[in-house]
Amino acid sequence: MSETTGYRPPADVRRDGNRLQDEPSLYLRQHARNPVDWHPWGDEALALAGRTNRPIFLSSGYSSCHWCHVMEDEVFEHEDVAEVLNRHFVSIKVDREERPVIDATYMEAVQRLTGRGGWPMSVFLTPDLEPFFGGTYFPRPQFLSLLEQIVALWRDRPDELEEQARRLAASIRAEPDVRAAGELDEGWLARAVARTADAYDAEHGGFEAPMKFPVPVRWTFLLHWYRKTADPTVERMLDGTLDAMARGGLYDHVGGGFHRYTVDRDWTVPHFEKMLYDNAQLASLYLEAGAALGRADHTAVGVDVLEFLDREMTGPEGAVYASFDADSGGEEGTYYVWSPDQIAGAVGDRDGPPLAALLGVTGAGNFEHGTSVVTRRSDAARIADHHDRSAEDVAALFGRHRERLRAVRDERIAPGLDRKVITAWNGLALSAFARGALATGRADFRARAEAIAAFLRGRHRAGDGRLARSSDGERTVGAGTLEDYALLGRGLLDLFQLTGEAAHLAWASEIVDIVRDDFARRDGLWYTAPGGGDAPLGRRVDLTDSVVPGGCSAMLDLILTHGTITGDTGAAELVSRELSRHGRLIEAAGLEMAGWLDVALRLEGPLHEVIVAGDPDDAGFASLWGAIAPRLSPAVVLLPVPAQGADAELVAIAPTVHGKAAMDGHAAGWVCNRGSCLAPTTDPLQIETMTREGWVR
Q1: DSSP secondary structure letters along 511-522
Q2: pLDDT tens digits, residue range 13-47?
Q3: φ and ψ of 638, to 5 deg
Q4: CA 302 from chain center: how many Å?
């Protein structure tokens, strides 16, 4: 290796490995034997670029990204590409899940340059980290040509590239005016919902688009709107979409869990990766929809997703892993798809043909090479007539043979599992398992929620309370982002509502305090990155919600819920102030800010504090609890306390529970609003009626 330039010949890099081989990230380690002399993001790589005055090639992706694998195989595995990169660039590989702030910063640059984004992200920077060109996937000939052009420009006209980079970086650094003030009148939420209905795909469910993404945060808001208003249009949208997602190919009917999205309008052929953030949110959504819509089948989907996460994606120490790859043995989807002969081979010639028909598996197939993605749309009665079987018999075939199909499928090459543990996503999983325990009473769901919290406290929380973004094994990576704090804090509040344990509430309180110290902006809201964290073009504020709730809306939700539990009257005032200050922006953005809409709906209230005091093993407590907890109502915040009343630790954090205890040996419940409580009751029907005030479902 040249000590001056840092150049290493591609053959040497391939033989000895590059600088990624000891990284905790699976995605980075997957590139450790490329002939490209990759660096991880860090001081060493950035100093080398400055010392040698070489441009940086930054490539960002994640382990379950199909096109990231394609670009590795077709581009980064080739020595002609590596020769140019190693000689003329400092090449940095970033796992976007480990370092989301870096990825988001440069994704904005790519979107401004090209009008679109995606992964793998490919962006070229000056040694000062200012971007001057970018894109996503490049085929090898195009990429080689691009490299040669940039080398020539950097050699002959560097001032032009640097000036272009300065202008683009300045536009990214300039904070938008996020104070789009405007009073929110009484009908603004109704108008947002009406615009949503205009975009609904009445034929296939979901929103009109050539590809279908679930986007749970949007459907959660619409579910809550339905619970507040019983709006029949929204009910039809919810039923149509939840049914379409659960019956189509987006759902893995054999193994459980949802894939990332489908490449078609009718939810049939998925992009096969499975992400924790999707499945945690969708489990919560289906559990609540089951309660609100009276649909036991929706509840069953939510339970099935949690069982999948517990069985397939959870590590021995208790946390839930990040994702399953889209590819299996180098091909996308082969692990999941079936032919009629494979179905018959698994379950026998008698049940095979009707079961294949029931699962939408045909000779022609709906995927590649005559294979089919499993769906659950077929009419059992029609299939029964064709095969001279009873409709009940055919309808029962899948339940009878599901474990067998799963066992046969497990003999195939399985997709890779990324064992990275991400704080924010585990916060979502913590919420999902806690809510699963509230909905079903299952002790194993409660145990999983408690194990997630214990893992994150032991591995991701530093001595001063600050959080790491992620871990893989014993090593943690990156400072926690706003979404890590907000979503973990919200998960802890869900766990507190399940258990009544003051330690969970105290940790959530600590998180709220740290965000106020480390993330606050002078003009309100919070930055995505903490002070001192990686923010190459300056700290940013992100207002929108995407596949997960954005940090700002999640933090508002955390503050509102935390303030309701603790009696902090300033919390609702803060939330109201931020909603008003951003009113015009929220109304214009609509579902792009669905998390804000949901916070506004809950703030509008009434938001009930419900204290239930009693022995959890007592029948009276079970009756009161059963009248409230399984409904998963957005209008209710639960505070369970022992029969003898709360201990001093809980009273100090949540003063409303002071003096609340079982009455004459009987479990009792109080319904309160901002600390003012109605008379206690031991009647489950009465407490249910009181907690429905202001809400319909």
Answers
A1: HHHHHHHHTB-T
A2: 999 999 999 999 999 999 999 999 999 999 999 99
A3: -95, 140
A4: 15
Sequence-distant (6+) residues with CB within 8 A of 110 are 116, 117, 121, 122, 123, 131, 134, 135, 136
Give the count of alpha carbons within 13 A of 184, CB side only.
25
Residue entry with tokens 């910063």? 105
**Distance in angstroms (rounded) separating the CA atoms of residues 253 and 302:** 13
According to DSSP, residue 680 is labeled P
- Residues 279 and 214: beta-carbon distance below 8 Å: no
Residue 606 preceded by cis peptide, ω within 30: yes
Q: Is 125 helix (H, G, I), strand (E, B) or coil?
A: strand
> Is residue 182's pLDDT more than 80?
no
Cβ(213)–Cβ(245) below 8 Å: no
Residue pair 361/337 in contact (Cβ under 8 Å)? The answer is no
DSSP 79-98: HHHHHHHHHH-EEEEEETTT
Taken as a whole, the chain contains a residue count of: 697
Strand order in the sheet with 421-422: 421-422, 468-472, 475-479
Helical ranges in 456-550 per DSSP H: 482-499, 502-518
Residue 694: CA count within 13 A, CB half-sphere? 15
Token pair in block for residue 466: 């600050």
Residue-averaged pLDDT of the chain: 95
Q: For residue 381, what pLDDT is reported?
A: 95
At 598, which helix (H) or strand (E)? Answer: helix 594-604
Q: Which of 419, 315, 328 is nearest to 371 (CA)?
A: 328
Note the pLDDT tens digit of each residue in 454-472. 999 999 999 999 999 999 9
**90-119 core/surface letters (b: 16 or more CB in 10 A; e: else):** bbbbbbbbbbbbbbbbbbbbbeebeeebeb
Strand partners, 641: 613
Tell me, what's the pLDDT at 254? 98
Handedness of CA 108, 110, 116, 118 (dihedral sign): negative
Taking alpha carbons only, the member of 270, 275, 219, 218 closest to residue 249 is 270
For residue 172, what pLDDT band results from cuts at 50, 70 and 90? confident
> Are the CB atoms for 514 and 655 separated by under 8 Å?
no
Burial track 612-624 (b if 16+ CB lie within 10 A, e otherwise): bbbeeebebbbbb
On the question of pLDDT at 560 being above 80, the answer is yes
407-411 long-range CB contacts below 8 Å, 24 or more apart?
Answer: 408/342, 408/345, 408/346, 409/254, 409/255, 409/335, 409/336
More confident residue, 5 or 482: 482
Arithmetic mean of pLDDT, 478-488: 97
Evaluate if residue 650 carries a pLDDT over 80: yes
pTM of the model: 0.95
d(CA 557, CA 578): 12
pLDDT average, residue stretch 240-262: 98
Q: Do the bridges between strand 668-673 and strand 608-613 make them parallel or antiparallel, or are there none, so unpaired?
A: antiparallel
pLDDT for residue 2: 59
Which region, left, alpha or beta, applies to residue 234 given φ > 0 means left and ψ of -120 to 50 means alpha? Answer: alpha
Say if residues 166 and 537 touch (Cβ distance below 8 Å): no
